[in-house]
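Reminder: ligand-aware prediction takes two inputs, not one.
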Amino acid sequence: MTQLTLPCPAKINLFLHITGQRADGYHELQTLFQLLDHGDTLYLHSRDDSALRFTSKLPGVTDSTNLIMRAARLLREYSGCHHGADIAIDKVLPMGGGIGGGSSDAATALLGLNHLWQLGLSTEELARLGLQLGADVPVFILGRTAWAEGIGEQLTPIDTPERWYFVLRPPCEVATAEIFSHEQLTRDTSPIKIAAFLEGATGNSCQELVRRLYPDVDKALIWLDQFAPARLTGTGSCVFASFDNKSAATAVLEEMPKGMTGFVARGVNRSPLHTTLDIA
Ligand SMILES: C[C@@](CO)(OP(=O)(O)O)[C@H](O)COP(=O)(O)OP(=O)(O)OC[C@H]1O[C@@H](n2ccc(N)nc2=O)[C@H](O)[C@@H]1O
Ligand SMILES: Nc1ncnc2c1ncn2[C@@H]1O[C@H](COP(=O)(O)OP(=O)(O)O)[C@@H](O)[C@H]1O
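Here is what comes back for the chain with adenosine-5'-diphosphate:
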């Protein structure tokens, strides 16, 4: 095997409660990461030499900040291997949207290169490496829709009804770091049990702050709420609503206001990446 074409699925946070803050500044949270069947596509080609090349362009992302290249270098350092690769991405997920695009790209790079280079690292080792790149990389390595605690890395797979989602992106990016460092962020939501989530007693601790800071997010929430209950995913900027079937979600997509973008996707309990690589 010398090349792989692999999916990098998006996620949405069905809810997000910030329950505290650790001494190192990271926030303790509870969330439900719902994987979607929509995302970027990563292309990996092995090379005869040890060069690592990224052949696509990502606006605003340099070689040293590119999460895909950081993942590849981290994997080489950790395993001590000197294999090379040409890497390209077909980017469809908006950046700074709270749908985990960069993290999913990094997770696919870790799992894909582990496979291509036949390193034999376990999923647990890869999830630990992934956590060094971002708090929501491990869920994409696990490849399951999951309940998360800690800073997002303590994961319990959970099967949710595989509903259809319309994800709406207002014309702005939200930097996760900006929201987590904001003095007005709600950091003391009481921890809940899974049962409370299933009863619908949840929200997003970032939503009120983000809609105040970003009027475009506020507009998107108000617009989508006309059709179905709308919520922010992660720290935004995307908002979403769920539907019983694809045609109901698509009908809302067709009404989307000018200046906004969006997509319809199905919630999946297992990552399309894991299906492609045939791993558990
Ligand atoms: C909070 C979530 C919910 O899904 O937000 P989104 O990024 O998806 O919007 C994610 O877990 C984010 O994951 P990720 O985007 O990988 O975060 P990182 O790169 O690790 O951290 C970005 C910034 O957020 C802060 N951060 C992140 C996660 C966390 N539990 N507490 C934090 O305080 C970090 O201090 C850092 O300044
Ligand atoms: N391969 C990558 N794809 C997307 N974003 C990347 C990548 N590498 C680095 N980044 C940086 O990570 C930031 C967050 O991206 P992303 O994960 O898509 O958003 P979010 O954390 O809101 O879900 C981007 O604004 C970008 O600067």
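The mean pLDDT is 96. Strands lie at 3-21, 27-47, 52-54, 84-90, 146-149, 154-157, 164-169, 231-232, 239-243, 261-268. We will return to this case in the review session.
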